[in-house]
Design a protein that fits this description.
By secondary structure, the chain is an alpha+beta fold. It has two domains: 75 residues, Nuclear Transport Factor 2, Chain: A, CATH 3.10.450; 78 residues, 2-Layer Sandwich (Alpha-Beta Plaits), CATH 3.30.70. The radius of gyration is 23 Å and the shape is elongated.
């Protein structure tokens, strides 16, 4: 576990720093205005800084960098789940012309798809975990589902067309 130091900077924001295994120092100054400064530096033994790097990021850039740095672990975790035989985790992005757009999520079990779970609906920057059947889905939402590949494909076909197909090939791309 990395030891992170937090220092309040009155009138500026907050500074978080930590030391890397190779002795480098990394810091993030989160300004009250919403932008962040990413700084790295290494100290020489005599106390003078040998090298410094500073990068100013706006709020969106800081979120993107955080996702890129943290996304690797999430992707690795999901990849290990995908390795479980019979389990498929997939994303369905809702378009304006999709059947599910503007409608309640509803229970697929009542339509014959048992054993499929809508894990979350992602809307903008927020996730709605384990949404209820009465959750309204809008264009631009992304549904995260888990189930067998065949059931995921069947559900995605229904989300697109509104028709429950009796047989959907597990080889066809569910979200595509």
């Amino acid at each position: 576990m990395v030891d992170v130091r937090r220092v309040k900077l009155p009138g500026v924001g907050v500074l978080h720093t930590f030391v890397t295994d190779d002795g480098g120092k990394v810091g993030v100054i989160t300004h009250r205005s919403g932008h962040s400064d990413l700084i790295t530096f290494s100290d020489a033994e005599d106390g003078s800084d040998v090298s410094k790097v500073s990068l100013r990021l706006d709020e969106d850039e800081a979120h993107t960098l955080a996702e890129l740095l943290g996304g690797t672990r999430i992707t690795e975790s999901l990849a290990s789940l995908d390795a479980i035989p019979g389990l498929s985790i997939d994303w369905f992005t809702v378009d304006y012309e999709d059947h599910i757009a503007g409608k309640k999520l509803g229970g697929l079990a009542s339509r014959g798809v048992v054993g499929l779970t809508v894990v979350a609906v992602v809307r903008g920057d927020s996730a709605n975990p384990a949404p209820a059947d009465d959750f309204t889905v809008f264009p631009g939402d992304t549904l995260v589902v888990a189930g067998t590949p065949e059931k995921v494909a069947k559900a995605f076909a229904f989300y697109r067309t509104g028709e429950m197909k009796s047989k959907v090939s597990a080889d066809s791309p569910p979200g595509g």
